[in-house]
Each structure stands twice: as C-alpha cells, then as structure tokens.
Specification:
2 copies of one chain form a homodimer. Chain A is mainly alpha-helical and 253 residues long. In chain A, 63% of the residues lie in helices and 3% in strands. Chain A is built from 11 helices and 2 strands; from the N terminus they run αααββαααααααα. In chain A, strands 1-2 form a two-stranded antiparallel sheet. In chain A, a hairpin with a 3-residue loop joins β1 and β2. Chain A is elongated, with a radius of gyration of 21 Å. Chains A and B meet through α3, α5 and α8 of A and α3, α5 and α8 of B. The structure holds a DNA duplex (30 and 30 nucleotides).
Chain lengths: 253, 253
DNA sequence: ATTCCATGAAGATCACCAAGCTCACGACCT
DNA sequence: AGGTCGTGAGCTTGGTGATCTTCATGGAAT
C-alpha cells in the first residue's frame, strides 16, 4: 500500500529515497527476533552498529529509542543496550508483530491470541449488535462480499477476512477492543495462510460470517455472540493445521 | 514511581540534568494530551521545539520518534509533524497511559476499559484456576494481605490492588492478557483514587479478593470466574462515583 | 577491604549537507 | 485577457559526523 515509487517515466529503480530509519529499525528488530542478538545479551556498541548497518549514529540511536519504547531493548546509561525478555515486549503493538513476522510460531503466541479472541470477540460482537451504525454494517457486508468473491486468491481472502474482523471491532465502539486489531490481524494472517487447501472450511467460514452480519442487522446479541464463537471454533481448527505444518519435526513422545 | 532525583544529601536542586530525553518526551506528550497541540494540527518546527524546551534538535527528534512509534504523531517528510487522532494512539501502551494521566477521564476510556475487563478478567481467572503455580497463588495471597493491612493508606491499598490483578493476569499464563496489565493498572488507579471514602465497599472488595485466592487454591474455575465478576461489579460502582466526582459540572437535562 | 581514578560508552550538542514538499511567480496556451 | 502549468526558490525534515559531557565500571593504589 505505502512506500511506492510513483516516479512516472523511464522506470529507474535507483531508489534514491533513503528512508534509512525505518529499514534500520526493522532490520535490528528482525535481528533481535532471529536471536542474532539473544535475549539478555548486550548488543554491540552504537558505533559498531553504525558500521554494521552503514548508517550514522543518529539513525542508530533513534532506532534504539523506538525499540526501547516498545519494550524490546533497554538502554543502560553508559553501559550498553540489553535485549529484554520477550515477555516484556509490547506484543500488542502492530509494528512489533510485523517485525516478529513468521517467527510468531516460535513465540507460542498464536494459542494465547486464540484464547484472547475467545474472550473478546464474542463480547465485541454483542456490543456491535447494539451499537453498530448502518454504515458499519454495510462495511462488514462489503468485507464479506470480498471474502466470498476472493475465493481463488488466498491473499485476497485473508485480507478480506482481516478487514471483516477489523470492522467488527470498530463496530463494537470500544477503544480497547479496537486496539487489539493488530494481534487479530497477525493471527488471521498466519493461521489462514496455511489452511488454504481446505476449501470446504472456507465455505463454512463464509457462511458464518454472513450469519453474523445478519445478526447485527437484526440487533440480535445472542445470535451475534453465537456466530462469533463458531467462527473462533473454525479458527481453532485452522490454527491447529497451521501449527502442524509449521513445526514438522514434532518430538512425538 | 520512577524518574525521581534521589540526590540524597544537602538538597542541591542543581539537577545535574540527566535524563533530558525522558523529560522532554513526557512534556511533549503531556502538552499533546492537554490539547496545547490539538489533534490534527502541526506542531512547531523542530528548531522551534528546541527553543521551547531548551534542548538540542537531536533530543527533539528522538522524542518525536518515540511519540510516532506510539501512534501519537505522524512525521511527514519535509512538511512537519502532525498530531494523530486519539483513536490512533496505542492506548494499551503503559507509557502512553502514564502520559495521559488524569486526563483519562476526558478520553471516555475508563468505561471501555471496564467493558474490556468484564470480557477478559473472568476468563483470565478461569485460566489461573487451572494454570497458576503455587508460587503465583502465594504471591496473590501476599498481595491480598497487603490490601487488608493497608487499610489506612489509600495509595498503599491501590498499589496492593494493582499488584493483585497483575499477579492474577500473570497466573493466567497468557501473554496477551499479561499485556493488558497496563490499562487495568490505570483503571484501578483512577477508579479507586476517588472511592476511598467508601470503607464498607473496600471491606467487601477485600472479601471477594480472598475468595478468589481460595477458589484458585481449590482449582475451582467456576468459583474463580464468579469472584472475578463480582469484583468487576464493585469496580463498576467505584468507577461511577469516580466519574461523578471528576465531572462535577454534569449537564443535567 | 576500601577508596580513588582512568577508561570507555552513552547522553547531548552543534554545524552541516541532502532531499523533497510548498508555494508563488511567470510563461505559455486557449 | 485569463487561466493553467512548469519551474525554481525557500523552507523543513532526514541524515551525517565531529565534539564535548557525564558517569558506571573495573582495576589500581592505599
């Protein structure tokens, strides 16, 4: 979506836009996630980081400040910067989730997210049933249509699913629930990614999503709650298959 | 709690200027919360901010980077820095909540937090009932004792209550729930703050908290859930009185 | 064992260059 | 003549590098 080069003519891929900051931050974060800088260890001196990433100290410092503000590292004055434990990270932060990326499977996070979704989304659906505006219900309908139409395209289907759940949380008109859209996006992204082979499940999911929209339209809290729970049961199955695919070397017994 | 100058003896308020960074960041954030820099407006140029806060441009830039990483502002290259809408802020971030401080009453957040707590804490209590270690239950017991003993001290009681709920979320062994400790802390801090006059309610709260510890000890999920719900009912009453006290000029009809 | 100091890394400042977004001015086209 | 479009100046952020200050630390000296 963003970060495009709209330089019209004679496509020179010179990419003369630096945007060093964001790249360096993401790179350091990825290196931390990849255990290149293990938890509890000090990362190199700022001057060494400058050399390693080929940027000035200012950029390094700003990147470290960002990572520190998200709980991933902790700067100790005149001593060094130490990598914090993963339980101190702001894993609800969308950027942090993005940096973790595929390694979310190693974080034992998806199960926690599913548990949290089971606590939150049915309640959010209830609130949405009594608070959603007609506009918001229309947005949900559009997202559902996108899910139905994007059957062949896995990425398109996932995006539409994410959009659906985002709209649902918005329609709950609760700021706290809305903040949780990030983890739900991550959960959907990495659960659905692997379950694209199960076409019949997807049809079932599409049905449930449609029923939820109808429940909201009827202002039927109980039905909305029920639909949400059924959706999460489907998500649980998807997650199980996704986890199985992603950790093939399961220590059986 | 932190950010103090513990300059022990012979109180020279010379304030040997450490930690400029943190102070500036907090000050800018507070100014944003106080609508000195309203939502949607551009804040002054970085050079002007240097003068205003009496620091170098590097410090300003690092502060803005931190605020940007929390969704409070958005830097537009070579144009300026614009204050984001409050619904874009990472309100689950502990630092952001700290910066908001008392103004949380103006954010219409406490009601949302209570709704979220009703969705989450009973479930967390259930998980704690089946997952808590004996050590964690002992910690909860200690926090409860601190609540009971710290009857005279309002701040002490609040701290103990915060510690109790933090331990409970830890005992749920769910990383997502654990991240929500920040908003629950904020909710308790500002709800209990005002309800210190209701001594009998506090006694009731202490009883319910004790019952919850016992339920965890018995591994009784249903009882734990029930205790959590009753606690939240008490919290709802506290919140109502706190809100009433904080917005005295209620437009009554 | 305690005190003191040299060391080194982060904290902070300053001056500077690069790059591109804005806006206004002027030329060109209708 | 008037409106539109290109262009360039200027301003502001993005990024660099040198420099100074401040202390946390570990080892040396007492």
């Amino acid at each position: 979506m963003e970060g495009q080069e709209p330089q019209g003519v004679a496509g020179e891929q010179v990419q003369r836009r630096p945007r060093v900051q964001k790249n360096v931050t993401r790179t350091i974060a990825s290196d931390i996630c990849a255990d290149i800088f293990p938890v509890g260890s000090y990362l190199p001196r700022e001057n060494d980081l400058c050399e390693r990433y080929g940027v000035s100290r200012t950029v390094i410092r700003e990147s470290l400040k960002i990572l520190e503000s998200k709980g991933m590292v902790r700067g100790r004055s005149r001593v060094g910067t130490v990598v914090c434990g993963k339980d101190e990270w702001n894993i609800l932060d969308a950027q942090v989730l993005e940096w973790i990326g595929e390694r979310i499977f190693e974080f034992d996070l998806l199960n926690c997210i599913l548990e949290a979704r089971r606590a939150i989304e049915p309640v959010a659906a209830e609130f949405a049933a009594e608070r959603a505006t007609v506009q918001e219900i229309a947005d949900l309908e559009r997202a559902w249509q996108a899910m139905r139409d994007g059957e062949g395209d896995v990425a398109g289907f996932t995006d539409a699913d994410v959009a659906f759940h985002t709209c649902l949380l918005k329609a709950s008109h609760n700021q706290v629930f809305l903040q949780l859209v990030g983890i739900i996006q991550a959960a959907l992204k990495f659960s659905l990614h692997a379950s694209n082979e199960a076409a019949e499940r997807r049809d079932e999911a599409i049905d449930v999503h449609r029923e939820l929209v109808e429940a909201l339209r009827m202002r039927d809290k109980a039905a909305a709650r029920d639909c949400s729970i059924r959706m999460l049961d489907l998500a649980a199955r998807d997650l199980a298959t996704a986890v199985k695919q992603h950790s093939p070397a399961k220590p059986v017994l």
